[in-house]
Fold this sequence. Notes:
Number of domains: 1
Number of strands: 7
Largest sheet: 7 strands, antiparallel
Strand content: 25-35%
Strand order of the largest sheet: 5-4-1-3-2-6-7
Amino acid sequence: MYFVSVTRLRLRSPRFLPQFAWHNWRTVRQTVRTPGFLDGRLLADARHTYWTLTLWEQEAAMRYLRDRGAHRQAMPKLQDWCDEAATAHWQQMDANLPSFAIAHDRLTTSAHFTRLKTPSEAHLQRVIPPPQADGGIHLKPQKSAAVLADA
């Protein structure tokens, strides 16, 4: 069994974008270097919405990332930066990264909504719009100097 994680964040203002981008870059570097990370995608979507979709050998590997370093430092800041934030996790039999459409389906049925200081009406009503785009940036485990590959 493989473990999948999806996160959808919407920044409540473009003024948070520089800080978000910096922390996101640091977290991506941490992610691709984490043992057990297999595959991933980042998607910048409409209205300052950002999706992360990752595939792991097991849940413990994802939790190792989540609880340390850059990721752990960024998580508390989301309460101020975001007006929508949701995550979902599931296990699957194959090692293929699902599409963002599948990730959206999972979010709509089993999302955990983050407690936010200024949640949007959609967040309060537990409404998650589907992604407007597809594709995004492909993340691969770091094995060489080339970590990010455009898809």
